[in-house]
Every structure is written in structure tokens, then in C-alpha cells.
Write a structure and sequence with these properties.
single chain; 396 residues; alpha+beta; 8 helices
């Protein structure tokens, strides 16, 4: 290689090096490495984990979360100013809320606000915005036990007797946690989301099999739980929260996601009994008896009735309740939580498309319900089966 070529290569190398230096200086002057908003949230969580552990400020109680602002992380040198990471010319602020879940495990929920470019949103707020309706299939407001079917009557406040309920046979209410699909049944006044498993436990189970003195046979006693006396179905459900997910076996070899337990929040189960002729679908009948602080249960009967748009759905066993009802589309027989108030050995189940009353010792599929709290942050999806809602998950 002649000297002239070496000279040209040296000049070219110098120009390339100069360009690299200029780009690096420009990047540094504009705030360093630029990240997507998801990556900024991940960096917030990583910094919060280190800060909380070093400062020994992790929450000690399940219902008492700890919030760490981005300013605290910046001032203590755990992270740069959030705006410096943003690709857009925006000001960003945020915090990370730490929830104690169980067994010294924690869920980290990043809340990032970058003006009109990005804002962390709860799953409940997205679902309400995209699905609220007053006619046809969708998400209905229920106030004081009555569904709102006039847009002028929509309620914008907050009330203990207020909830959103999915109704109809064509609803976008799928949520995916790992490989498990769930259906959103309702959203309460605190924006907690009731989910019903789309799949079932692998083995069909009896609601209860105890000896019943009223019928003088082992046909079961239809009290879900009372003062520590537990039905068989109650015992069947508890491992979903209390034991390793490996012990929760679903049909079709589907694995139950360990994430689910981290996302659950406690709920009150309405375990009151109802008669076959009871026309109430507001929950007043079932909620006369409430079992507090539960993490898993079955669907109360009134929600099956509520999901139907058929005006002739006037009692739990009416076949009309299977019309215009997404809960009638599973194609199997599965237990409801509610028992028969007129016969102590009977409870209700959905049999294909309709609800029926049956002897507790019979077997049916087990389709559990859980609740997600406000720490369920929306990630992606539109609620269809092909593109279900997905929540963000940051846990240790």
C-alpha cells in the first residue's frame, strides 16, 4: 500500500472518529441515551428496587403500599431526570408504588406521565373508556341496582352502590395473564376488576358431598363457608391463592400463571342463597350474606343474569337468560357460587347455555373468579380474544 493510500485512509478514519465524537457529544447534550416509555418505566422500577432495599423502606403490610417519587430517585442518584430519557421534547414526572403481595414478595407499579405523549393508565380506566355503552353489547353502568340505558343518565361520580358490568354476547372483555385467558365480568366503584377464568380446573368437582340430614343422603350441604365450616368447592378453590401455581392444574394442559397471585386483590364474596323464582339481578339477594377478604371464589348467580340483554331473563333458571349472554358461550357445565335457598342440598350451575339447579354432590367444571386492583396497569390489547388486554408486571 503506497503512502498516498495510507494518508487517505488516515484522513478517512479521522473523519469517522470526529463524527462519532460529535454524535456522542450531541447525544449527551440532549440528555443522554433515549428510551421508549416502556424502557423508562423499567428503569424507574430498577432504580426503585435498589433504593427501597438500601433504605429498608419496603412495605410491611399488604394493604399499606409505599410510593417513591422520581424526584427522590433523582436526588439520591439512583436515576437521571426522567425527561432526559424521553425521545420527545416533553417534561416527564412519575413515581413507583410498591405493594407487598405475600411471602415477602413485592409488586412494583410505575406511574409515568410525559404530558400528551405518554401516561400510565390503569387497566380499568382503559376498559371503561373503550367499552362503556347504554345499548347493545358492552359495559353498562349499574347504579342502585339498575342498568343505565340512556346516555343522559350516565353517572360520573362515585358511589358504593355503583359498578360497571359487561352485558351481551359480543363483548371485548378478554384479559391475558401469561397463557391464561380471563373474562372481565365487572368493575366496582373502586375500579377493581372481577375476572372469570376462560378455562376451568382440569377435574370436574362436586359443590359439596357431605351427609345432609334434610334429605338423609350424602348429597352435600349448600353453605359455601360459615364460621370455619367449609364446603368442598371452597376447599377446591383455596390452592389457587395459597399454594404454588404448579398445584393448580387446568384443562388442556394449560399452566396456571404464577403472576396471577401477585396481581390479585382481596374481595368480598356475596354468598347469600336465592330461590328459583327470585327475579332480582342487582345482587341484593346474594349480598345479604357476605364473606369478606377472599382472594378467589365462584361467580354469583346474579352476574349470569346481569350479562343477558334479554328482557325476559326474570329468574336464574329462565332459559331466556342464555340469550345475548357471553357467559352462555363456554359450552360446558360449570358451578356458580350461589346455592338454592329452598333446598339445602342444591346449588346453581350453568349447563351449556342456561343456569340450572342441581344436587351439590353432582360434578361440574370449576371456573374461578378473582379481582385485580388498581395496580393492574394497562400494557396493550383491545379486549378481543385475538388481541386481549395485557397488564404490565414488575415483581421481584
Amino acid at each position: 500500500m503506497d503512502k498516498r493510500m495510507i494518508k487517505y485512509l488516515a484522513i478517512l478514519g479521522g473523519i469517522v472518529l470526529l463524527l462519532i465524537i460529535v454524535l456522542l457529544l450531541k447525544n449527551a447534550a440532549s440528555g443522554g441515551v433515549k428510551l421508549s416509555y416502556d424502557k423508562i418505566e423499567e428503569r424507574m422500577v430498577s432504580a426503585t428496587k435498589k433504593y427501597a432495599q438500601n433504605k429498608n423502606i419496603l412495605p410491611t403490610e399488604i394493604d399499606n403500599p409505599v410510593s417513591i417519587s422520581a424526584n427522590v430517585l433523582v436526588n439520591n442518584g439512583y436515576i437521571d431526570d426522567l425527561s432526559s430519557y424521553a425521545k420527545d421534547d416533553v417534561r416527564c414526572s412519575g413515581e413507583v408504588v410498591i405493594y407487598k403481595t405475600f411471602d415477602d414478595t413485592y409488586d412494583y407499579v410505575p406511574i409515568l406521565n410525559c404530558g400528551n405523549k405518554h401516561e400510565s393508565r390503569t387497566l380499568s380506566s382503559v376498559v371503561i373508556e373503550e367499552n362503556e355503552t347504554t345499548e347493545g353489547s358492552g359495559l353498562y353502568q349499574r347504579i342502585d341496582g339498575k342498568f343505565i340505558t340512556n346516555v343522559n343518565d350516565l353517572y360520573m361520580g362515585n358511589s358504593a352502590d355503583f359498578e360497571y358490568v359487561f352485558r351481551g354476547d359480543s363483548v371485548n372483555n378478554y384479559v391475558k395473564i401469561d397463557e391464561n385467558l380471563w373474562r372481565i365480568v365487572a368493575i366496582d366503584s373502586n375500579e377493581n376488576i372481577m375476572l372469570l377464568l376462560n378455562n376451568t380446573l382440569k377435574t370436574n368437582r362436586a359443590w359439596d358431598t357431605k351427609y345432609n340430614i334434610d334429605v338423609k343422603r350424602s348429597r352435600g350441604i349448600n353453605t359455601y363457608e360459615l364460621n370455619g365450616l367449609q364446603s368442598d368447592i371452597y376447599k377446591t378453590l383455596q390452592p389457587i391463592y395459597n399454594e404454588s401455581s404448579e398445584k393448580v392444574v387446568l384443562k388442556n394442559k394449560e399452566k396456571f400463571s404464577e403472576k396471577t397471585k401477585y396481581l390479585m386483590t382481596s374481595m368480598d364474596l356475596c354468598v347469600g342463597k336465592r330461590s328459583i323464582t327470585d327475579s332480582d339481578m342487582s345482587g341484593k339477594t346474594e349480598c345479604k350474606t357476605v364473606l369478606h377478604d377472599q382472594h378467589v371464589g365462584l361467580l354469583p348467580a346474579y352476574y349470569f343474569m346481569s350479562a343477558s340483554l334479554d328482557p325476559l331473563c326474570t329468574s336464574i333458571t329462565s332459559k331466556n337468560c342464555g340469550n345475548y349472554n357471553y357467559l352462555a358461550s363456554f359450552g360446558d357445565s360449570w358451578w356458580l357460587l350461589t346455592a338454592d335457598s329452598e333446598n339445602t342440598s342444591q346449588a346453581y350451575s350453568v349447563s351449556d347455555k342456561y343456569a340450572v339447579v342441581r344436587v351439590c354432590s353432582n360434578k361440574a367444571a370449576v371456573r374461578p373468579i378473582i379481582k385485580l386492583g388498581l395496580r393492574a396497569i394497562y400494557s396493550e390489547g383491545n379486549g378481543t380474544k385475538a388481541n386481549p388486554y395485557v397488564v404490565k408486571f414488575y415483581s421481584n
